[in-house]
Amino acid sequence: MTRERSIPEAALPRLALYLRVLGELTENGAERVSSDELASATGVNSAKLRKDLSYIGSNGTRGVGYEIAPLMHALEGTLGLTQNRSVALVGIGNLGHALVGYSGFAERGFRISALFDVDPDLVGIPIGGIVVEHTRRIPEVCPERGVTIGVVATPGQAAQGACDLLVDAGVRCILNFAPVVLQVPSEVDVRKVDLAVELQILSFHASQHGPGTLPRVVNR
Amino acid sequence: MTRERSIPEAALPRLALYLRVLGELTENGAERVSSDELASATGVNSAKLRKDLSYIGSNGTRGVGYEIAPLMHALEGTLGLTQNRSVALVGIGNLGHALVGYSGFAERGFRISALFDVDPDLVGIPIGGIVVEHTRRIPEVCPERGVTIGVVATPGQAAQGACDLLVDAGVRCILNFAPVVLQVPSEVDVRKVDLAVELQILSFHASQHGPGTLPRVVNR
DNA sequence: AGCCGCATGTGAACGCAGGCACAAAATAGC
DNA sequence: GCTATTTTGTGCCTGCGTTCACATGCGGCT
Ligand SMILES: NC(=O)c1ccc[n+]([C@@H]2O[C@H](COP(=O)([O-])OP(=O)(O)OC[C@H]3O[C@@H](n4cnc5c(N)ncnc54)[C@H](O)[C@@H]3O)[C@@H](O)[C@H]2O)c1
Ligand SMILES: NC(=O)c1ccc[n+]([C@@H]2O[C@H](COP(=O)([O-])OP(=O)(O)OC[C@H]3O[C@@H](n4cnc5c(N)ncnc54)[C@H](O)[C@@H]3O)[C@@H](O)[C@H]2O)c1
Questions:
Q1: Which of A21, A79, A204, B93 is most buried (most C-beta within 10 Å)?
Q2: Are A57 and A4 in contact (CB under 8 A)?
Q3: Across A153-198, where does the E strand assignment appear?
Q4: Which sequence spans correspond to the domains of chain B?
Q5: B interface test, pick of A99, A149, A186, A195 with most B CB neighbours within 10 Å
Q6: Which tens digits make up the pLDDT trace of B164-194?
């Protein structure tokens, strides 16, 4: 097995993107694709795309292109999607409910298998087919259900505590929606999604675009 | 006014992070902060932090540190947060509802001022105090309400259409939650939040961490 | 008033990522 | 079987971002 030790971090989101677009192409009946086609469908430079694919082994045929099915398989293998990933969600509020109801996770092989909250009105009732457990049961329930990834969607001040419990439970990958910087041991990987930050970056660009950009009516 | 033309793109999320943490420090009664303190609170290298702050002008005092209040003001000015930003949200489903109810936007000066959907059960009823309009009214309503930023939270196949309407309405900044690559004119700035991609990146790291990482029960 | 210590601001080196352009390989056609 | 065509795979260069290390400048102390 060629365990390539060096896939650039910057390539990972693109690999996931290729995988999704390839899935769409398959639905349209395609079996092969060239790097130029896939590049324009994903908005990625074709040379960069080929280099990305080369990180996971040479799956293409020169003069022809890439066979979609094995390429998708290789991508799934690289991203670790062959083993169904089990996800625990902590904090079943507005955002948590939306995440539970989101079909996009299951489609990519992620199964939400445990829900946690501290609200007595929530604990014990099923949401999306899964009974909400009390947060204190994280260290017990997560190993039972083979949880690999933890999602933190609690209010900010509760996030570090939730994170600590997940880490205690052996979870080494955490996706954090709370607007706090989580402190974790070095072996734990945290990714943060901060929507306010996204808006602030857009706001910066809005300021730059037109210096006096106040939204003006489109002339038609 | 020193309009520094060159703030690295990579620094922007950090600037937003500094701003939030400085706000927390203010709540705790702090008035000054050193680059080392702020660096450890944000998890950023202190030299990088100082360089980031230098992009928006020299707000520090050597031997002392940074005065928090003026620094926050400078950050807000740079990020364009002094003018209250008006946000339109298209697609009021599970995710859309969560976004409407999210207080974190208002806290940072973003006001959701228009909601759009095509569902006849939604159009006309108020959600979070704002009446949902039909999507076709985007080009009319957005300029009226001074919308600067559009958020797309429709299903994938509707996202491009929603995006086009926003662009027609003069919106130049778009935050996209749908799992599609939006096509926009070059003057429009799109940021994408794809939760499935985040999970896939975590999944990759989980595969790398322990080669045979199947979640094992914590020994206690 | 002058000196000392301390934190900022930044020059310079390094490393990573992106993109061009071409060589290598495989197929199709003659 | 040989050549032409097409598309992959990649070497090399360029530019950006990060980090180190230190000079700079300011406040406090005597
Ligand atoms: N709603 C959004 O659109 C949105 C967007 C971006 C970020 N966020 C962030 O996501 C987090 C959740 O947002 P929300 O809108 O769902 O908030 P919410 O208040 O609706 O839900 C929070 C949930 O967490 C639970 N909770 C509280 N303390 C807990 C603890 N110690 N352990 C476990 N669960 C606990 C609460 O019972 C509640 O169910 C917040 O940090 C918020 O800043 C939300
Ligand atoms: N729910 C989540 O946690 C989550 C997470 C990540 C990404 N997403 C993405 O966000 C988007 C919305 O997710 P959701 O769970 O809210 O879906 P949803 O089905 O609950 O809501 C979609 C909403 O969009 C509306 N809509 C449909 N066509 C429209 C159109 N042409 N114009 C305007 N509105 C239209 C529908 O009426 C509905 O209200 C999807 O693309 C989804 O992939 C959702």
A1: A79
A2: yes
A3: 173-176, 189-192
A4: 9-78, 85-197
A5: A195
A6: 999 999 999 999 999 999 999 999 999 999 9
